[in-house]
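The records we work with from here on pair a chain with its fold. Each token is a code from a learned vocabulary of local backbone shapes. A record is reproduced here so that you can trace the correspondence yourselves:

_____
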Amino acid sequence: MIRVLVAEDQSAVRAGLVLILRSAPDIEVAGEAADGEQAVALARELRPDVVLMDVQMPRLDGVSATRQVVAEELADVLVLTTFDLDEYVFGALRAGASGFLLKNTEAKDLIEAVRTVARGEGIVAPAVTRRLIAEFAAKPARASTADPAVLDSLTRREREVLACLGEGLSNAGVAERLDMAEATVKTHVSRLLGKLGLRSRVQAAVLAQELGVQGP
């Protein structure tokens, strides 16, 4: 079972999310939080597999809560918001969120996103991916704390995979682009995340965009 903590300040929305998640036979709602501080506290107590985190919440916003949950390695975080592209998105992804979805996501897609994040494969809403990448491309002067030297530890193939992640490609998409087996892609992703000290492929995608990593 995938244990999920739902953090959302609007009770009606939270109830709807819980209802959707409970409809999946392999997902258990471990707890509910109404604000960011409660989300962090319950994550510490319950140790869920995934925290479904709203961005705008009282007491502690979702980005700050995500940063704490990820820093303490309490769970993987899937961020939900009504905003399709703004600094909240970048903040959440930089904070270590494993995924980002819009609140108008279809129920089946939400469930599948939770499963994907629980498997360790981050996800960004398809409708957002291209705009997310375009935003980075449009702002080359965006401040980055990343040091290009971190890429020195990667093999040529790992750099190519990282570039594909930066384009928002799935494992299947990377496999097709680089003409390799999907299982091999997963291995490369796992290795490059370890070398770069990252927790999710989404963080890797953000890093690839910030450093301008180019594919083959």
In short: The two ends are 39 Å apart (CA to CA).
